[in-house]
Write a structure and sequence with these properties.
Layout lengths: L2 E8 L3 E6 L3 E7 L2 E4 L5 E4 L1 H4 L9 E4 L2 E2 L2 E2 L2 H15 L7 E8 L5 H13 L4 E6 H8 L10 E6 L4 E7 L2 E8 L3 H16 L1 E2 L2 H11 L10 E8 L5 E7 H24 L3 H10 L1 E4 L8 H9 L3 E3 L6 H10 L18
This protein binds adenosine-5'-triphosphate (ATP) and magnesium ion (MG).
Length: about 350
């Protein structure tokens, strides 16, 4: 009686929750602000993200996941618990069944941590699925066909590339280089080139506003504010879109190399299918200007960005909650161990 079935994308940057039959009911940054004197959680999500870099000594605002996996277990579990409570507020239930995603490249210890965090958050029945599989299903790819399709999910902490056929992953590569590393590359560049210290939120804003993977029409520049490394005083500098692109070129090449490596490991018949059907991109990183075009150029394969790339993974978990979706019978090898 009164079971709530939810799907959760516990991401490095964002956590999304969907409720069976209702669609997405929550989207929040994966951030927690807590008081270090008594470990009390002060805020989670957007409210906590606004506190990053602005807290007094007694409060810390942290992102408890790093590179797609749990870096701080207690804080992640507390965050997930809050999110689940917030998402299910006002509804009456006695049990929670939860489908949660984990990156394809995680170790057993790392996936066990996600399982345990879901337990602490109140789930009684936990089901782990691989993120690229959920991303492909959520993007609406024909994963059940006897033909290969390729999904590239670039999130905050991990980039995952997978070739799927007949409802399972044929080959997959996961690297811990993604959106966060683009931000970090911008921070380092601005420090080196302009002697300016900026925070991760400013770097992310720069990336989203003027960042690109390829030259584009109407290249622009923006003013950014930070702290002068030399005299410690506030300072404003102007940074161009060309500069931002060159700052991010290393991590971008590494993501593209991972796609190439996956293609090299793909059996020829499936590679031919991918040539025909193209590559589908999901995750927030897919929104980077010119990224899809650059991948298409570098691989010679057409690339499309899924509709609502940030939502694909959680929409995939929602499919898993639906009977007769095909995805409900999918067996994730490592997930079964914890039943
Ligand atoms: N318009 C945009 N241009 C470039 N990057 C963007 C844009 N919008 C969001 N991003 C980036 O996308 C990333 C977040 O994507 P997403 O929510 O898919 O990650 P996640 O699922 O939380 O992380 P992971 O899957 O690695 O655990 C962040 O690095 C964010 O800066
Ligand atoms: Mg993700």
């Amino acid at each position: 009686m009164f079971t709530r079935d939810i799907g959760v994308d516990l991401g490095t940057a964002n956590t999304l929750v969907c409720l069976k039959g209702k669609g997405i009911i929550m989207r929040e940054p994966s951030v927690v602000a807590y008081d270090i004197r008594n470990d009390a959680v002060r805020a989670v999500g957007t409210e906590a993200k606004d506190m990053i870099g602005r807290t007094p000594g007694s409060i810390v605002a942290v992102r408890p996941l790093k590179d797609g996996v749990i870096a701080d277990f207690d804080v992640t579990a507390a965050m997930l618990k809050r999110f689940v409570r917030q998402a299910l507020k006002g509804s009456f239930f006695s049990r929670v069944r939860m489908v949660v995603c984990i990156p394809a490249g995680v170790t057993e210890v790392e996936s066990r941590a996600v399982y345990d965090a879901a337990k602490v958050a109140g789930a009684s029945d936990i089901d782990l699925v691989e993120e690229p599989m959920a991303a492909a299903v959520g993007a609406g790819l024909p994963v059940w066909d006897a033909a290969g399709c390729m999904v590239v999910d670039v999130g905050g902490g991990t980039s995952e590339v997978a070739v799927i056929s007949l409802g399972d992953i044929v080959t997959a590569q996961s690297i811990r280089i993604a959106g966060d590393d683009l931000d970090e590359a911008i921070i380092n560049y601005v420090k080196r080139k302009h002697n300016l210290l900026i925070g991760e939120r400013t770097a992310e804003q720069i990336k989203i506003e003027i960042g690109s993977a390829k030259p584009f029409e109407n290249e622009t520049s923006i003013e950014i504010k930070g702290r002068n490394q030399v005299d410690g005083l506030p300072k404003t500098v102007t940074i161009s879109s060309q500069e931002v692109r060159s700052a991010m070129s290393d991590p971008i090449s590494q993501i593209i190399d991972t796609i190439r490596l996956t293609l090299e490991k793909t059996p020829p018949e499936l590679a031919a299918d991918i040539m025909d059907r193209g590559i589908t991109m999901t995750g927030g990183g897919a929104l980077l200007r010119g990224f899809a075009e650059l991948i298409a150029e570098e691989t010679g394969i057409p690339v499309t960005v899924a509709a609502n790339p940030l939502d694909c993974v959680v929409l995939g978990t929602a499919k898993r909650l639906e009977p007769d979706s095909g995805f409900e019978n999918y067996v994730f090898r490592r997930g079964k161990r914890f039943r």
